[in-house]
């Protein structure tokens, strides 16, 4: 029984304390006056009676009632029911007369009507109770008020006395006895009667309608987020202007949380004075009146629910975790079914009329039923994760959170994790964990109904039915008695509170009330105590969680096949079938990702331990350890699946004998997992073990007692610990005292022994094997690769443990290096926690603290011995390192480091989508030699294990090296690795094996860097080859040929002198010297620059005929240089002629630069016009960048046009050169003279051309002979069509490239009709950079013309190349589907750069072929200039397409003319910052594109180009080192080739090497070579015609790059031997070729190579001296030609050889005419034949017209132009007249117009179908003034009228006629 009310209090307004603002309340009377012993009087009631402050009012308000909740210090809740009414006070003055009863006050009150100043003060009747019966309190206080207001004849004292002495039963509404009836029905002695509905089960909260109201006020989503916020411990604040609603809302939220209890601050109504409580840091649920809303604004972390406005406001910084997904959706649906049943049928055509929601009270219970179900689903199976650690004296229970989350598959779920960590859940475990107690609705639900809820999922009807059933039970629990009719409580009459003369509430007589109370208490004491019959029973556990499926849909995790593989592999290991095990191993490691496989592994291993197979040999031990590590690797620190727990006993069982008496256990090898540092894991494990032992303890007891009964109850062992505990708890009260003590002691010692056991276990797993080395985690985390890469994998657990200690203690431990200390402290902390929780006695605990350091110390000693022995073990059978083959003279700098080669973004080698074997990852070693970085190893996949994988590249080609962290194998940790990228399009992504110390890796990187960027070019491999690496940096020994050495020295000395002086003679316009620009300073030069100051004598500038002997030698050597040989071949002059000055040659070879004095980066001998003096050259050179003045490098043998090259102009020079003619000239300044000389120079070039030597010097198109036009070119003859000759069109390609019509520009402000009408062609075109030539006007009087074009600079090439490398060799597979290979290729813009270069080159070829000379003057004259000039020569001159010619071309244009190979290739330390710029590679790529289009025009093969691409950056040869001839001479390189020819096999020059190789094998030869005489090539340059070079994408993993020929050759033999050993298998000739592995050309050679090889072998067998392949080939060709002549008609076999092939020999389809048969034979040499190559039947004999071939150089491709010309067109309204280029197109039946004739973009189209009429027009405003009126005509279309104006009347007439004829044709 319990008291209904503890205190009755009368609280009034305190007139004495009306201080500043609000008044205060005071307690006028309270009953009983002394506190109850069991329940002291709560403080601060007066605050809660008027929560918003005590105030006086001017009018009487109706009485109010609400219930406030106070929480006392023991967190007991007190319900204060406040009934407040208002009484008048005198406004005269606050009298402070004694409170002797209200009677006197009444008499003083004036009887006149209410004065306006009358005020009313509140007074409250308060009941304080521990029970929450709001309705009963309302009725009781109402009754007291009624008695007072209506003056009923009942004593107030009696009523109050009865109220305070009324006792009611607490719970158990089921036993309806008669006396119970009486007890539940109370009367306060005023003729009233109330039935108190006590709930049947007091553990279920009572909510009446509050939950339903809360949902009505806030809505489903809002309440759900409030619910989640409350469970995840956020702060919640309710606002409302009704106090009762605040209380209800808070009560509702608590009811929803059942079975969890809210344990934080709970204040449904917070008084104004206590508002600062809201800024408390702890969670709370508080209600506040809405008038204080403004005060709540600045709360940043509080979820505010406004009940009146129906909103819930969640601040930005608060993240509420919501329910896990299927549950959230199901809960929402269920709630909407309950709250809004109409929703289901809202769309029905005939909705049922009957549907309506339940009554509010029922709805309330239904909502609660939904939440009950929700909790049952959330917490299902929770009892299986309870650990009972002690049963007596009282149960101690722990919850295994990790296991619960793991088994539910919700480890990632935020919400559940937070709930389980919360206080509410801790209370839940304490309260409901007990195995023997009374149970309620929730226990039944979670135990018996889970299955039902799972089956009903998704069936709305059944769910609703279940909800209704639960709701019934809840309703029944709250309202057990239907006896509402018996209520009878008097209410006051309506409006009584407004009566004018209201008596004050009388003062009550304390004595009477106290007497009643005392009597009642005395009666209670005499009565027998009412024993609450608690029905305790064993709590049912419900189905175990295992029944729950894996939620994450991880289908592959559980496949039985995988588990079978795991089992087999383990049994192989134990049966010692290592090879079998090794094959299955990778599959097992992959399977370990799945949980089932991990469980399977622990079970299998456990079986083997039980069968006493725990002692393993080394190999078995290694396998088991790797499996365990792999298994643990995917476990989180929580170990939610219990894998680490299952492995814990195993790691202390498996072991191997290291030597007699020393055994290594598995735990020493699996310490590197974070789970071992997690103290929660150890606690859970400990409790689990303790529970098993306690269970065993009682089971044994039982067996002793019931041995005879055992047979009867067989399955008794299966009892769970909780069942046993509940049984024991039931028996506990019946046991004797001694028995109880004995059990308590047994349990205590069980726990204690486990604690000792765990102290040992923890020291095993926490102490690292090598304790001396102290492998601790550095606190920065950087000390250790693992910790960097993966924040939680630590090297030794003690480390991270230590960290946590230090952070706790707040100061660094003095002996922080000592591992033992850390471990001891960690174990101590653990022991303290578990022992205090499980009630171990203090003595035992102290004993433990003494033992732990000894345990750790002992373990350290055994570990030392184990560590020593394990060091002696040979490392486990890792594959032996394969040594790479090295070149002659190549030496190892670093022995192999064991690494794994990881797959990068290329899919081929890794198996990938393409299929094929997974060659990568491979394990092997990385070697660093003086020349290359080489990886050699074998694939880790055992199925491909026999293959050898080699990947290498020259060190010099390394462009980027970065550290990475990768996981090399599934079962291993994250390792340190490197990613090395090379510009030979190779990528080495390696992970160092764990045996490689990180300092070795560092050393490797340092060496690599040193070799990649030597101090000086002498440090590169080409120089150091053959010396031992140590002396790499010493100066070279004395040369064999001293005279040459001294010669080079003299030469350089002289050059320096001259250069040094030259600096001084320069006047103010000195362009920056190359020395200052280049990044490589040679120290000697700098001295010279500064020190030489004497004036230079003029004589050195003029060429002298007397040459000193040393100079003679120089010149002899210069003459032998490539460029000189080439000049002589082209007849550009011989040296003698230059000395004796024969006048008939237009050009001479000048020796002006023989000392490299004028231009350091030019060759010593240069071709200049005959008429130019050497001293002029000196001056001219200053106008050009780097002094690279224009020199001739090639002459067209037919048109005698020359190709010149130079650097770009300096700003000053440009202005001088193109000065406008009528600008006033100031006196002749130096610039003038220079620019005049420059003009003279250009004029001299022009005069050298035969056509322009005539007087006019001007050649217009009319005088251009037709003989000239039929030049033999790949574009064939020109069709005789009505338009101007095609060459005139081709002439302006340049201007078109520049994007503006230069010819149509106006000079001196007058319209240039002349140029408009007459196309003139200049004798010399200067191709310059648009940016340099800004503002330059072409001069009609000059014979040259500037073609400004936009080119890309080196920076763009670098950037583009980087992107190209990333596209072709990505570092890792791209995750983003949009980044495909082709997309990234396009973004690199590499092909568009190649397109640009080819386009410019073809333009220049065109110009030269039509007889104009061209000067290419771009950038500094050594990058893109070189590319263009070389390509032009290659396209124009068949000689350069031979092996010998190409060599000459490269030597002349690239080497002699100073392309800066060292600088662009970043070959030395100085160039490191500038990075690699592949200018030469880009040129080779262009050659490759041309080669693809004209496969029959080149003597060399594609392989030759790849070979050059590879070796020009490999530094294997000296050819491409240094930046100019000058530098090569300075090093003594240029001439030593002769002297040192005899040096052993090391070739210094790439050309010698190629020659020798070419003699041996036809590898550089192109069998399709069948050149045509004098062929000029014009390749397509559109991007669609370009192909990505396979050099960028292919690789050969079987042997590495195939460009070091000696290395690639030595391979095939040993492969065959390996095949032969295995004789048992049937021999097969078949060979499988893998695309990225085998060298296809060798495994599967082309027919001709194969035949040549067989021929060679036959000759060898016959003992003849084998003939050279070239001779054989030439013989075959010759005999074949003669055959062809005899037969008269060619057989297909002969076609390939013959050189008389038809004209169109593009690779896109070679058309061969067969004269005998007349059919067209199509040899398609490329997979995609383009549309241009289909034979068009319309043309004669199936040959297609040549026009398509040069369509690229028309205005726009595939256009038909019936008539074209320039017209002025009037723009739209108010727009001016503009000249436009018009094209009339008959086929498309339209008139198109363009901005200019160069324009390829059509600006507009007039459809002729729409034209209505064409009439003569009149000039309108703004029309061109000079034109005749009759030249105007109008074109009227259906849409608008176009006004046109032609040049003159005839033209206008012609246009009109043409358009008319078009119209009539149609």
Give a short summary of the structure.
The chain has 1866 residues and is an alpha+beta fold.
Radius of gyration: 51 Å
**Can you list the strand order of the major beta sheet?**
25-24-23-22-28-27-26
The mean pLDDT is 75
Strand residues, percent: 5-15%
Biggest beta sheet summary: 7 strands, antiparallel
Tell me what you see in this structure:
The protein is an alpha+beta fold and 1866 residues long. Helix content is 39%, strand content 13%. The strands form 12 sheets. Strands 25-24-23-22-28-27-26 form a 7-stranded antiparallel beta sheet. A 7-stranded antiparallel beta sheet has the order 41-40-39-38-44-43-42, with helices on one face. It has a 5-stranded antiparallel beta sheet with strand order 3-2-6-5-4. Helix 6 packs across helix 8, helix 37 (1122-1129) crosses helix 50 (1443-1456) and helix 46 (1354-1368) runs antiparallel to helix 47. The protein is elongated, with a radius of gyration of 51 Å. It starts with a strand and ends with a helix. About 19% of the residues have low confidence.
Structure keywords:
single chain, 1866 residues, alpha+beta, seven-stranded antiparallel β-sheet, 63 helices
